[in-house]
DNA sequence: GCGGATTACTGACCCGCTTTACTAAAGCGC
DNA sequence: GCGCTTTAGTAAAGCGGGTCAGTAATCCGC
């Protein structure tokens, strides 16, 4: 016969004080409470395994001790790599260390206005947005209302929007530098359309590497994909054919998205180009998929769990209203060298 | 200048009724409220983009409209496959359809008693437990207190514990049947120690297939791994060597865990056994990792998103106190044939 | 045109906790 | 032992919404 949950009043009764005093003790208020009383209350609370009722506390304080994660779309999950789960692992860990819970808020809400009302109406104290796709109205509205939002692994242009991101430009530089060192001179870059901050940044890093290497003539061959689209096999086939038919043909490919990189690598052989013999491929993010695929793919990785942890810290600072040193916290990217890159064949080099 | 959130009182004022009436309308109580009044209230609510304050409502009703997911350990996330995220995708989708939010409850809690107090004290109305590892005290205590718990993709022996699981026995049967059809006669099964319901069930399915094929003599060669341990390379090496040194040596391997299957397959070549030429390998779960690895692995898969959705439905039924037809909802497993299996070589067959 | 039922609606309290404003008692200088 | 301060503690008012018990107005039969 499970006993009723202990309430503050029960703790107070047991300690022989009023609820007010018990509340003061448990919330660490230093209002001249003698050690003996303090101890009695703490003992009573421990004895009853007391924890404040979340809803009651929220109602009184206006704080939920919850942080939300806004999922832009179902694909955040089903994107079949571990990008999301690795960030999430960091978020959950760090949140728990701060005695916060994590609430998942779905994109399947009937409309963004009710999601908005829920978020600002006691669902969470602040939200994290993890996405490669930008949200239309929700985030700007939250920002306009002064609600704490932190973007994870991407950025919005809005001045009020804080983010944790990695140094995409340096990442692009790393990728290009690696290919240049292997002897490649004709490099193609696949990246997303305008909306994605990281696409342009990575491309810019590649350009910088080429310039530093004295390759500032033509620059890399580039091809955008449409923002907001999910990768599909047709896109992969088209792009693989584009690689084959480019003249002069690139000997190496930098693809700013891991799944797309994988799809392209799988398509290239069917156009007569082997990886890495004819075309080297570098991807980004370096999760499971890059590591286990065949051939394992050289990839520029992000420290995903750390990014998740930092995002929680930044969001909590925003919620508390603490000044934060920067609007964007940056992490370095790291190059993981695997089998998808090799030196270009002599013929290809000569042709350039 | 963002306006204050609309409260029930604001809606009531706008509609020219009392908060009580507004509450009745919005909660669908049929207490003889004429259509005209009803409409006025609904219009007012829509006009103000009203949503009830979550905490206030919870406090009054004792319901949170949240379902919790208890993460047994950080590895639930970082296990580097998409097992967890695919289930989670189904859970989040279905929860949103039911106008419920999903709360992630971490294993990093200082101790299970405070997690328990949080859960029963307004964190969620019921919890889902997704895990291959059993939890020690938390779940039994929740069950004893009559708190709704549903286990996802595994089961507890407790009579009060409801679960959504797949038909592991049939899955084991499928795996073995496939190998038998290819001509294998000497099959080894790797499975977890006692605690994991699915391990024993899958093994039992294999046994049944062998018996049906008239192979009921020796039965499969079996080897347990320790419950609750995470796969590590050392385990893989030991096990690979065990396979090589078994006499007579098995020509096929059924491994009840996907990551372990992958690790073994990666180790086998170093012991001189090729996959699938010398040893065929079948894994379970069939997520990304089985699909993309080299060679792609034949695997018995679970319909993970559907399992997640069904788990939400079952949990909500439990929360409502609705009678449910069964304590365990079962889903069929499906065999995905890939390149890790082939017919055994004649020599190996002859030796048996 | 009176009693009883029905319709339409509301006042007031409760959920459990925080917090402000307040008080009773002790301490202290003189 | 009088006033002032400090110490130790409390009563009561919310936070926003749900809900029971109740009421005023209308309807109906006769």
Task: Kindly describe this structure.
2 copies of one chain form a homodimer. Chain A is α/β, with parallel strands linked by helices and 352 residues long. Chain A has 15 helices and 12 strands. Chain A has a 6-stranded parallel β-sheet with strand order 2-1-3-4-5-11, with helices on both faces. Chain A has a 6-stranded mixed β-sheet with strand order 7-6-8-9-10-12, with helices on both faces. In chain A, strand 6 (187-192), helix 10 (197-212) and strand 7 form a beta-alpha-beta unit. In chain A, helix 1 (8-15) crosses helix 2 (19-26) and helix 9 (168-182) packs across helix 10. Chain A starts with 7 loop residues before the first helix and ends with a helix. At the A-B interface, helix 4, helix 6, strand 2, helix 7 and helix 13 of A face helix 4, helix 6, strand 2, helix 7 and helix 13 of B. Strand 2 of chain A pairs antiparallel with strand 2 of chain B. Chain B binds a DNA duplex (30 and 30 nucleotides) through helix 2 and helix 4.
